[in-house]
UniProtKB/TrEMBL annotation:
<dbReference type="GO" id="GO:0005524">
    <property type="term" value="F:ATP binding"/>
</dbReference>
<keyword id="KW-0456">Lyase</keyword>
<dbReference type="GO" id="GO:0006094">
    <property type="term" value="P:gluconeogenesis"/>
</dbReference>
<dbReference type="InterPro" id="IPR001272">
    <property type="entry name" value="PEP_carboxykinase_ATP"/>
</dbReference>
<protein>
    <recommendedName>
        <fullName>phosphoenolpyruvate carboxykinase (ATP)</fullName>
        <ecNumber>4.1.1.49</ecNumber>
    </recommendedName>
</protein>
<comment type="similarity">
    <text>Belongs to the phosphoenolpyruvate carboxykinase (ATP) family.</text>
</comment>
<feature type="region of interest" description="Disordered">
    <location>
        <begin position="464"/>
        <end position="496"/>
    </location>
</feature>
<keyword id="KW-0547">Nucleotide-binding</keyword>
<comment type="pathway">
    <text>Carbohydrate biosynthesis; gluconeogenesis.</text>
</comment>
<feature type="compositionally biased region" description="Polar residues">
    <location>
        <begin position="478"/>
        <end position="489"/>
    </location>
</feature>
<dbReference type="InterPro" id="IPR008210">
    <property type="entry name" value="PEP_carboxykinase_N"/>
</dbReference>
<keyword id="KW-0067">ATP-binding</keyword>
<dbReference type="Pfam" id="PF01293">
    <property type="entry name" value="PEPCK_ATP"/>
</dbReference>
<dbReference type="GO" id="GO:0004612">
    <property type="term" value="F:phosphoenolpyruvate carboxykinase (ATP) activity"/>
</dbReference>
<dbReference type="InterPro" id="IPR013035">
    <property type="entry name" value="PEP_carboxykinase_C"/>
</dbReference>
<dbReference type="GO" id="GO:0005829">
    <property type="term" value="C:cytosol"/>
</dbReference>
Amino acid sequence: MLEIIHQTFVCEGSGFGDVEEGEDRVCRSRSQPKSDPPRQGLRIATIVVRHRHQGGRFVMRRVAVQRLARLSTRYTHASAPLSAAPAAAVDKSTEAATGQAQQIVFPREGPGVNYALNWALCAKGVAPKGEAFRNLRESELRNLNAAIPEPKKTTTVYARGSYSAGATAISKPHFNRLYKEVTASLTSSQKLYVHDGAIGSSPRSDAKVRTISDNPSSALLFRSILEPAPTRQVSQHEFPFTVYIASNYSPSDVGSVGLANEDKEAFVVIDYDRSAMILGGSAFTDVETVKKALAALTAPSILSRDALPLSARLLVQGGATVVVFAPESVIQKNAGLLNASVSPDLGLVWTKEGVARLFASKEDGAPNLYKAPSSVVLVTADSTGAVPEISKVTPEKAGALFVAGYNGEDFQPGYQAGPGSVDPVELAKGFTAMLESTNIPAFLVNASVLAEHDLLNYIESTVTEKLPKSKGKKPSESAGTGQSNTARVSGSKKPE
């Protein structure tokens, strides 16, 4: 049995590189004297293969192939059993360069057969034994009976990394074992569906993601979640984040991979340090959990690009934009707030250039980047009477409120409602610095003392700073005195 591990070519002046279908090169063998003229149009490809002997021992061998595009279509995919022809069929200079050469019979490329894609998937741990399709259109996926069923329950999220919060911990050895089992399951699939996209609507601050799935329905889901990304290159280097969706996989021993028994049929596992996420069983149907996990997976990368990945919503009213942090329990009860949001999804990316969505918009022609916010609003739900309906706060106070994330019942640092991969204190530093450098005003609004229809009016008033008259404390007073839970956590003083 021969298993392809990697494919390269030798080209004058460029060393090794990926073999591109249908591309002729001026090539010479590494053993060919430089005084000899190079061969125009000759493709000399070197494939490193692993040969398994009956005794179980592996021997690494290099195989030379000429003009891959013109070879036989005997097999239907690149990782099928390989047919070897006499070595005499290969150019003598190539044979000398590789030591021992065989001629390999490759299929022609077509739907489901793409060598560049197969090599890229191999680099991600998946060596397709069947067909692999990339970026199928929605109509093509629908023709494959793709659909997104309703989730049966909320899926448990496991995570590990240099920083991890809001998820069940999993060890590195457990993740590695799970990774091997999942990639083996995907490798054995008859059909694979690859979709490439991005988290973040602005190319200046997005995070490129590649999904590899054994189910067309999951490809349809990610097609609706991820922002479009350039598809002209298949190289794995263009997509540093990988999501493995193994809907047909269920661990035989959940304990050996660090999962609880009740999560055997559906689980989400993230390794932040490895930039990888695994969705097992029916987990991909839990769309909200998947989105939160994607946001956490890519947050460190987005932050490293001088952008702030935030669990917030962007409102657009009369040409003005407002960034709103609020408990989801408050948001979901307020239809006006949801309608004013540019996206029903939680999450945005704030940069000095403006604000970008985190996930794809369902509206045609939606902008990739919205202008910088006119104001920032942090919503709490305090019923103690210590926090007024609305008050303007300093950048330092806003940062403290952001870290606390008090929602009236408990604390969600950074207003993070799911797994987190970035320390909220680090995010708060960037958040405070952004407010200070842009002079964008920040406000605290107490939803507990407002009627539902009033909340949107109060948020809109922050654009002009013509604040409604407070029925409780005056707006000039502190948004959180010594009696306030928020103030006790933030440790902040009254704003001047």
